[in-house]
């Protein structure tokens, strides 16, 4: 109430945020903190020029969201909160020190479908793409932004098709730049999967993107989530074009089929990986020429292994 009575007084907002932050570790205060997100983000929007207040506000929101995750509570932040966060993003879009924290906050917020939809509605995607282009070298920013992009692209709303299509080149650039960084590559592969599902690719994209996803698999074989999402992305490409299937078979760096076999044996206890691999193979066998090649590479043997390993799945 004190903060709401004095929106224009920066010191009141800063002190209010500091007081609220002192309750974050008190689990009994959590239900009350949940009701404060709009007040906090509005204070950030009103005093957007104050970097200190932005940092303290972000830190507090991250603390509340972390508590929510620990307690299994999904915070569906409304459109007014999304609008305030967008305002902060636009005001500080060139601040490389502050952006990693802000992008992490957006990533955590977008885990909720409702909040992701609200971020999409207020038009945050072009701002994310602009940040990615400007800070392609920054792994923290790239990882968080791609995760947000994945959440937003996975939405069933088709209003942003043209905007999402413009996300494809920069997402590929992120993956190319950070192939050896498993965290960033995993996030970028997830974003590419969502963009492929949304039909954001053209005929000329299938071969290079398939090759890029295979590179991500080769560079990060131990990351189960990356393997799963890369295979799902590849399956989406193959469903759309035989070119993608042939690119997997004839990749210049080695057989994609052998790579798939290696990945399965590396993740024998991961049903999600096995399911993604099966989906990919299921898409590949729709093309006669590809199926003949898979037979010659003894794919039936691998399928039998998977069936024995997961008989009830």
UniProtKB/TrEMBL annotation:
Its EC number is 2.7.11.1. It is an enzyme of class 2 (transferase). It catalyses: L-seryl-[protein] + ATP = O-phospho-L-seryl-[protein] + ADP + H(+); L-threonyl-[protein] + ATP = O-phospho-L-threonyl-[protein] + ADP + H(+). One of its GO terms (molecular function) is protein serine/threonine kinase activity. Keywords: ATP-binding, Kinase, Nucleotide-binding, Serine/threonine-protein kinase, Transferase. It comes from the Eukaryota. InterPro entries: ARM-like, ARM-type_fold. PANTHER family: SERINE/THREONINE PROTEIN KINASE, SERINE_THREONINE KINASE LIKE DOMAIN CONTAINING 1. This is Serine/threonine kinase-like domain-containing protein STKLD1. It comes from Chloropsis cyanopogon. The lineage of its organism: Eukaryota, Metazoa, Chordata, Craniata, Vertebrata. The gene is Stkld1_1.
């Amino acid at each position: 109430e004190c903060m709401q009575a004095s929106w224009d007084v920066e010191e009141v907002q800063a002190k209010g945020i500091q007081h609220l932050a002192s309750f974050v570790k008190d689990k009994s205060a959590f239900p009350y903190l949940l009701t404060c997100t709009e007040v906090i983000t509005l204070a950030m929007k009103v005093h957007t020029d104050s970097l200190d207040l932005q940092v303290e506000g972000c830190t507090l929101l991250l603390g509340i969201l972390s508590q929510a995750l620990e307690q299994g509570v999904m915070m569906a932040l409304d459109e007014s909160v999304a609008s305030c966060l967008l305002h902060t993003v636009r005001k500080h879009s060139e601040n490389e020190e502050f952006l990693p924290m802000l992008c992490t906050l957006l990533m955590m917020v977008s885990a909720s479908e409702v909040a992701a939809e609200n971020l999409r509605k207020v038009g945050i995607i072009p701002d994310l793409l602009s940040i990615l282009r400007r800070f392609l070298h920054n792994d923290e920013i790239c990882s968080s932004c791609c995760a947000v992009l994945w959440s937003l692209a996975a939405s069933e709303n088709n209003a942003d098709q043209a905007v999402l299509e413009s996300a494809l080149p920069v997402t590929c650039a992120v993956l190319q730049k950070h192939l050896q960084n498993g965290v960033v590559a995993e996030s970028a592969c997830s974003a590419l999967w969502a963009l492929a599902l949304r039909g954001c690719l053209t005929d000329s994209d299938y071969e290079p993107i398939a090759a890029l996803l295979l590179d991500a698999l080769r560079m990060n074989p131990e990351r189960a989530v990356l393997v799963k999402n890369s295979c799902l992305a590849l399956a989406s490409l193959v469903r759309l074009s035989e070119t993608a299937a042939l690119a997997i078979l004839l990749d210049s760096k080695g057989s994609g089929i052998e790579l798939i076999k290696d990945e399965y044996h590396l993740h024998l206890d991961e049903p999600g990986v096995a399911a993604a691999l099966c989906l990919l193979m299921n898409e590949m066998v729709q093309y006669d020429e590809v199926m003949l090649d898979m037979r010659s590479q003894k794919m039936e043997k691998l399928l039998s292994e998977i069936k024995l390993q997961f008989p009830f799945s």
